[in-house]
Amino acid sequence: MSVLQKKEDIFSDCKKKFWNTYKTGLMYWPFVQLSNFILIPVHLRTAYTGLCGFVWASFICFSQQSGDGTAKSAFMWLQGEKVNADEESSDK
């Protein structure tokens, strides 16, 4: 996306957000699969996994636009608080 947006440093978003997004995925997907196999009936598992994939893709899109790759930034956004990853990363 950085190439299409004609950014100078095309790897800057990856450098800033990769590990946060990776760690968030490590917390999200095992929970999804555990709940899928324990709680969801067999005939609904595909739909449940598809819904969870949609939620994950929405999180990735949010993270690309304004988040920092953490679930905390997504929850802050859902609560109506302003999230700006550029300011947060420059404060560190």
UniProtKB/TrEMBL annotation:
GO biological-process terms attached to the record: mitochondrial ribosome assembly
Recorded superkingdom: Eukaryota
Regions crossing the membrane: none
Membrane topology: Multi-pass membrane protein
Record keyword Transmembrane helix present: yes
Keywords (A to Z) from UniProt: Membrane, Transmembrane, Transmembrane helix
Record's GO cellular component terms: membrane; mitochondrion
Primary localization class, coarse: membrane
Subcellular location, record wording: Membrane
Pfam families associated with the record: Mpv17_PMP22 (PF04117)
Family membership noted in the UniProt record: Belongs to the peroxisomal membrane protein PXMP2/4 family.
Protein name listed in UniProt: MPV17 mitochondrial inner membrane protein like
Organism: Zonotrichia albicollis (White-throated sparrow)
Gene: MPV17L
